[in-house]
Amino acid sequence: MEPKFWHDRWHKNEIGFHQETGNPHLRAFWASLGLTARHHVFVPLCGKSRDMIWLAEQGHTVLGVELSEIAVRDFFREQALTPKKSSAGPFEVWEIDELRLLCGDFFDLQATDLSDVDGVYDRASLIALPEDMRKGYVRHLLKILPPDAPLLLVTLEYPQETMNGPPFSVHEEEVHALYGARYAVELLKTHDGLAESPRFRDRGLPFMHEKVFHLRPR
Known about the structure:
Layout: H1 3-11, H2 24-29, E1 40-43, H3 51-57, E2 61-66, H4 69-78, E3 84-88, E4 91-96, E5 99-103, E6 117-122, H5 131-144, E7 151-157, H6 172-179, E8 183-192, H7 198-202, E9 209-217
Parallel strand pairs: 1-2, 1-6, 2-5, 6-7
Antiparallel strand pairs: 3-4, 4-5, 7-9, 8-9
């Protein structure tokens, strides 16, 4: 998947992955990471997720990275916020108060960009990538992420042959394979993802399991 794919999706407003009201699993399980209000949180491939507002409301400083300028612009516009804009290396920086979004390619991030990060929230990053890209994504994330930062990870499981992603199906076994060497992987919840997403049922999916994981540094 080339950057053009995501630019086209945002340009055409084909963003079915976006959740207008935020993700309920974040609210239910975020406290399990043990972070306090002073901690910094990283949201990779953040889109225009309102979850970043919720995290900021908990007192966190939030750092997001997003390829699409449309997504970044719409995030601040929809939240009625006027950010300050600047440049930092390959990124255009949009920020206001405790919110800082880097517009650019995730794979251009360096460890120095994430040096203050205390925890990670991933609802739409791992499942946004096809299988042949997920290893590279996790390898780069773990290379630049402070080693003691835990993750709250949300994935989807469904028969991949019944629907083209994104979002892609990521099985629990793959989560262990990708992260298990560095993290203790704890499954917090399995949820019927079709219950609130009839559009996926209409596309022929017999089931869709939404799974929430706490990845705790070993």
